Amino acid sequence: MNHTLTRRNTESIALVALFAALLGVMGLIPKIDLPLGVHISIQTLGVMLAGCLLGPWRGLQAIGLFLVAVAAGLPLLSGGRGGLGVFMSPTTGYLVGWTAAAFVTGWLMSILPKSTPLRAAGSAFAASAIGCIAVLYLFGIAGLVWIAKIPLTQAIWANAIFVPGDLIKCALTALVVHSIARALPEWRLGGAVSR
Predict the structure, then answer these.
(1) How confident is the model at residue 33 (pLDDT cuts 50, 70, 90)?
(2) The dihedral of CA 124, 172, 182, 66: what is its sign?
(3) Nearest Cα to 65, choosing from 21, 100, 128, 109?
(4) CA separation (Å) from 19 to 37, 113, 142, 166, 176?
(5) pLDDT at position 76 over 80
(6) CA 35 to CA 88: how far, in whole Å?
(7) Which long-range CB contacts under 8 A does 150-158 form with residues at least 24 apart?
(8) d(CA 188, CA 41)
(9) Angle at Cα 106 formed by Cα 157 and Cα 134, nearest 5°?
């Protein structure tokens, strides 16, 4: 069995680590605190980008690597939070949901049309909206109900405040994907770099 890393494996490892680091850098941007211990941060934009640009598996790996670093105590979440305690807070559902959101976003991006930069941007918007709004909100609502012990209907309505900001993040993701599709047509959006 050949144990050497191929160029493709090396690129995959580098991209996963790069996006995990990008999420950490996004954590330096201050969060906006809301009631129920929930807050708005820019880091979900990183989740959207990871899914759209890396695909389902690498996107999931990047988010997983980031969450392992957070669990190990690195203060990478917005507001300088880190450690196992953040996984016992009302935001636990959102944090755990990041992996599913990146996977679903990447999977949708891999099957949606990307023949032109404009189509790629539209696909990125749709994939991000479904993966990082619909799927992520399901996890977030479950966390609010389970950990914060608030009624389901209140948890659902508590997420309504996030929708406008998350739609802006979807539009920013679409803009980034459009730019990459124009500048790097060899990049296989929703997957890996193709050579």
Answers:
(1) confident
(2) negative
(3) 21
(4) 26, 24, 26, 19, 14
(5) yes
(6) 17
(7) 150/36, 158/35, 158/36, 158/38
(8) 28
(9) 10
Q: Could you tell me if 100 and 64 are in contact, meaning their C-beta atoms sit under 8 angstroms apart?
A: no
Greater pLDDT, 78 or 188 = 78
Closest to 41 measured CA to CA, from 84, 98, 85: 98
Cβ neighbours around 64 below 10 Å, total = 16
* CATH code for residues 7-183: 1.10.1760.20
Single-letter residue type at 61: Q
Query: CA neighbours within 13 Å on the CB side: how many for 80?
Result: 0
Placement of tokens 């049309």 in the chain? 113
CA dihedral 35, 38, 42, 43 (to 10 degrees): 180
Parse the chain into domains and list their residue ranges. Answer: 7-183
pLDDT at 52 over 70: yes
**Residues 6-11: contacts with CB within 8 Å, 24+ apart?**
7/195, 8/192, 8/195, 11/192, 11/193
Q: What is the pTM of this model?
A: 0.88
